[in-house]
Amino acid sequence: MARTTDSPAAPRVSPPDLPDEFASASAARSADLLAARLDLAGNADLAYASLEQCTIRADADEVDLTGATILDVAMTHVRIAALKLRGAGIRRLQIVGGRIGTLDLSGARIDELELRDLRVDYLNLGAARATDVEITGCSIRTIDLPQAELTRVRFDTTSTDEVDPRGMRALDVDLRGLDALSYLDANSLRGTTLTGFQVQQLAAVIAAGLGIQLKD
After folding, report:
1. Between 95 and which of 32, 54, 75, 158 could a Cys-Cys bridge form, CB atoms 3.0 to 4.6 Å apart?
2. Contact yes or no for 104/85 (Cβ under 8 A)
3. Domain-wise residue ranges, the chain
4. Which of 85, 83, 54 lies closest to 67 in space, CA to CA?
5. Spatial distance between the Cα atoms of 86 and 83, rounded to a whole number of angstroms
6. Model-level pTM?
7. What CA–CA distance (Å, rounded) separates 30 from 194?
8. If pLDDT is split at 50, 70 and 90, which confidence band does 136 have?
9. What per-residue confidence (pLDDT) applies to 187?
10. What average pLDDT score do residues 81-108 get?
């Protein structure tokens, strides 16, 4: 993918457009919710639901939003063991504060996503198509990006143990603010921006990908 002189372009992320008042609602599979306030616990099934201009708080084992349509939704101070957004269609989703065990966005179509001040054990963006993503102040143990298509994605003051970018396609992906202990495949980082120090840390992985043997 071509780069411009202004690369990497910053994500174009705006807060969800939310109403002044909300109506309380309960989780239901295939629900159609507008301007709703959801307080979730236990196992909440919202698979294939439509959520527009909603707020969500959760202290839950599982929140299933598989295949859901998400438009202008804010999630705050959540505690969720598994948040499933596989195959979801997302436009302006903000998740701020709390802890998530597994955040599964595999296969999702994402346009404007903000993750801020979160602890996540496992973030899965495998095969996702994501544009305009901002990840700030997060601690993420493992980030999986295989076959993902990422455009205008930025990490800021975020740490992770391991990143799997195999097969990733990237344009304007800014990894300078991601403190990663390891990348599984440096060859798949084409289209990203790194600092000089980060590239030095990746030297062994880059060499292995080129078939270079390192010996002192």
Report:
1. 75
2. yes
3. 23-209
4. 85
5. 9
6. 0.91
7. 42
8. very high
9. 83
10. 98
